[in-house]
Amino acid sequence: MRCRDLCWMVLFAPAAMASSPAMDPALAGRIDADAQAVLQRTGTPGATLAVYRDGVPLYVHAYGLSDRERKTPAAASTRYEIGSITKQFTAAAILQLQEAGKLDIHATLATYLPDAPHAKEVTLIQLLSHTSGMPEYLDGDDVETWAVKPATFAQIMARIKDRPLDFPPGTRWSYSNSGYVLLGRVIEVASHESYEHYVRTHLLAKAGMGQTITVAEEARAPAMAKGYRHTNGKLEAAPTIHATVGWAAGNLVSTVADLERWNMALQGGKIVSPADYALMATPATGSTDYGLGLFVDTLDEQPRVGHTGGSFGFTTSNQYFPKQGIQIIAFTNVGDNPEPGQMLVSATFEALYPDIAAAARKPAAGENTATTEAVRKAFARLQGRGADLSMFDARLKAKMGDGLSERMARQLSPFGEPSSFIYKGQRPDKEKNRTWNDYRIEFGPGNSLPFGVELDAEGKVAGISVG
Fold first, then answer.
1. How far apart are CA 138 and CA 339, in angstroms?
2. Quick one: signal sequence residues (predicted)?
3. pTM, whole model, 2 decimals?
């Protein structure tokens, strides 16, 4: 466990709770127990978790401390940085401007920003859907020292202007904060308003979001959570990304109640037309699970529409499950990966719908125990538990020695030791005449990971698929 110095706060700190009388106490207890397990496992100081149906709260519960040093309890009204959930607002603003006849999402970026990087090569809809190939301005060894200082739009663009596109536009999907910064500037050009003024006037005010502010205002805002992160296993205060750097890609601060007001307004046609909301919530060309400012994927094979947010000191998740008609929102004040915000949403959904969760964990037929044991050993090695590379083929072994081993350990070791490996079947790799073996690895409530391996004729691991 990474959080020995603070787990007592998660388990025993006072909690503020407001649940609907309609919720069975046993169900509320199950949600609470799973949430406590997530927060303990991740060493999260504080969190606010809410479940809504049609805007009506079914369960709202705050855990732990919003400020560890001041021993301030988290509350339902606590403000958190919501990071990339901001992208929903930026995308909606672009669509509003199209509805007003002020821009066309199918036009090239050059139509509005002729001097922007790759402006003639990419369209607005490709920026909205992360299919533009635009390089990432938040990459680089200096990002943490750079991102906490003020930056102009020109300075942000300078970080990517000499870099090629990551791929031909429209052919692939890759998350790009740069695209949303560019869209923020397009909003200003098309509306003749600052991005901040446009968002406040045309989005926040329309949705009735009176408690939502920007990162620039959080230092003097009441009920503001303090952000934390773990470094070398130790919890520490996290830096704050500067509002001018996160900007249209991620500079909003909100409460769970205000974000649900946004959800209801966006889904209910108060922000954009129903046709445009449907466009936001439909995977775009070049992507299988992202529309325009919204992820469109599944949890336990159930449709899910929403977005996560992460900053140096916060992780958040805002997810709608259309088949069940519920919205689950989780805000946490720790910026680690795997993200506690998303884990809380997953754990809560599975507590609400245990039969769905059980069905998703049902193993596929035809499991080979020797293959499963190879998968266990390979995953342990990728997490950095052990030095044996003999299970990998020559090509993968060479990659492991060329830096892949360290990268995978950084990505996978925070998940902790798995509790189970669930066999989910096979899929052919016709190009290589081999077969992928797919598993669902469980680590505790709300925390699972799709993982696949491809074995060669000698039983060596020749390919790895994570996520």
1. 19
2. 1-18
3. 0.92
Hey, is 6 helix, strand or coil?
A: coil
Residue 99 near residue 80, CB atoms below 8 Å: no
Question: pLDDT at position 193, please?
Answer: 98
For the record, the structure tokens of 62 come out as: 């705050």
Among residues 320, 305, 203, the alpha carbon closest in space to that of 258 is found at 203
Phi, psi of 62, rounded to the nearest 5 degrees: -110, 140
Give the closest residue to 290 by CA, choosing from 74, 83, 87, 151.
Answer: 87
C-alpha 385/C-alpha 378 separation (Å) is 10
Q: Are 242 and 327 in contact (CB under 8 A)?
A: no
pLDDT at 233: 87
- Copy the structure tokens of residue 287: 């992507």
Q: Tell me the per-residue pLDDT of 165-220, one tens digit each, with 9 for 90 and over.
A: 999 999 999 999 999 999 999 999 999 999 999 999 999 999 999 999 999 999 99
For the chain, the 3-state helix, strand and coil shares in percent, each to the nearest 5, are 40, 25, 40
The reply to whether 369-466 shares the fold of 83-295 is: no
Q: Which CATH architecture has domain 83-295?
A: 3-Layer(aba) Sandwich (3.40)
Domain over 369-466 is classified CATH 3.10.450.590: yes
Residue 388 is predicted with a pLDDT of 83
Enumerate residue ranges in the chain where pLDDT < 70.
1-22
CA–CA distance, 219 with 457 (Å, rounded to integer): 59
Measured between alpha carbons, how far is 229 from 382 in angstroms, rounded to an integer? 23
Q: What CA–CA distance (Å, rounded) separates 139 from 269? A: 36
Strands 315-321 and 234-237: unpaired
Domains of the chain, by residue range, sit at 83-295, 369-466
Task: Count the neighbouring beta carbons within 10 Å of the beta carbon of residue 285.
Answer: 11
Q: Give 400-410 pLDDT, tens digit per residue.
A: 888 999 999 99
